[in-house]
């Protein structure tokens, strides 16, 4: 597969990141670095700070410490292009809006009640087809399955192609076939566009198959490395109650 190397970034570095809410420290002492062309998975129990960390990166949570973005020449980038796919999207499923109309409106190109122009249609259709869901373009948004909706949101998050793609438990409640297809499309984006991808997921087997790097959080980083390294640590056992090898035996 040809690598387009569209990413303008080289690395993202988090230094001494801390998020506090009232008297509670949600995350602290986060020191991480991840790179373009790399799928990094965040794992941990509920309340470990995974979503808090993502919201800090997205600018939705005040934090102390530093988040820096560096290009291939070692120059810091002030505003990288970040794509985001949430765990779920709340909307009225009875609304008679097609996928095409929704994406055009979300991109700010066309009000939802106006006809989508030819050029916009081609751009949206191409993004959908890259996520293997081009056939959904004229489908009513509310009629989509969970897996179909998440692939549509993934397509939307890649318009334009981001430097960093953040996925916050994007396939919660999706069946196994939909899970595998979603992860394959994410891996495709990483390989084709050399983008940095940060993923929160509870599916440890799919993380093992697709992630380049795994970070185990419990309000701070307690283990990191490739999946085999992290899944074999005492920290992993303390969080999940078993070693991954035991779960597969």
UniProtKB/TrEMBL annotation:
SMART domains: AAA (SM00382)
Keyword Nucleotide-binding part of the UniProt annotation: yes
Signal peptide positions on this chain: none
Domain ABC transporter: 12-243
Keyword Amino-acid biosynthesis: no
Keywords for this protein: ATP-binding, Nucleotide-binding, Transport
Pfam families: ABC_tran (PF00005)
Taxonomic lineage from the root: Bacteria, Bacillati, Bacillota, Clostridia, Lachnospirales
Family in the record: Belongs to the ABC transporter superfamily.
Any one GO molecular function term: ATP binding
TM stretches of this protein: none
Protein name: Metal ABC transporter ATP-binding protein
Gene3D superfamilies reported for this sequence: P-loop containing nucleotide triphosphate hydrolases
Species for this entry: Anaerotignum lactatifermentans
């Amino acid at each position: 597969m040809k690598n387009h190397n569209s990413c303008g970034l080289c690395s993202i570095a988090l230094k001494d990141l801390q998020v506090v809410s009232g008297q509670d420290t949600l995350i602290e002492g986060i020191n991480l670095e991840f790179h373009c062309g790399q799928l990094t998975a965040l794992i941990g129990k509920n309340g470990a700070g995974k979503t808090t960390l993502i919201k800090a990166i997205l600018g939705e949570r005040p934090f102390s410490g530093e988040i820096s973005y560096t290009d291939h020449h070692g120059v810091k980038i002030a505003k990288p292009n970040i794509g985001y796919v949430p765990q779920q999207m709340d909307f009225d499923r009875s609304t008679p809006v097609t996928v095409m109309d929704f994406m055009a409106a979300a991109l700010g190109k066309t009000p939802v009640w106006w006809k989508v122009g030819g050029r916009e249609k081609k751009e949206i259709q191409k993004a959908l087809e890259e996520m293997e869901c081009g056939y959904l373009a004229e489908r009513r948004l509310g009629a989509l399955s969970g897996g179909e909706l998440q692939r549509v949101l993934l397509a939307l998050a890649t318009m334009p192609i981001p430097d960093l793609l953040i996925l916050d438990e994007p396939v919660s409640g999706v069946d196994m076939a939909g899970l595998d297809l979603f992860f394959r499309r994410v891996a495709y984006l990483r390989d084709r566009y050399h983008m940095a991808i940060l993923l929160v997921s509870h599916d440890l087997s799919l993380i093992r198959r697709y992630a380049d790097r795994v970070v185990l959080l419990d309000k701070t980083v307690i283990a990191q490395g490739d999946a085999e390294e992290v899944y074999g640590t005492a920290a992993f056992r303390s969080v999940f109650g078993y070693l991954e090898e035991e779960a597969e035996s």
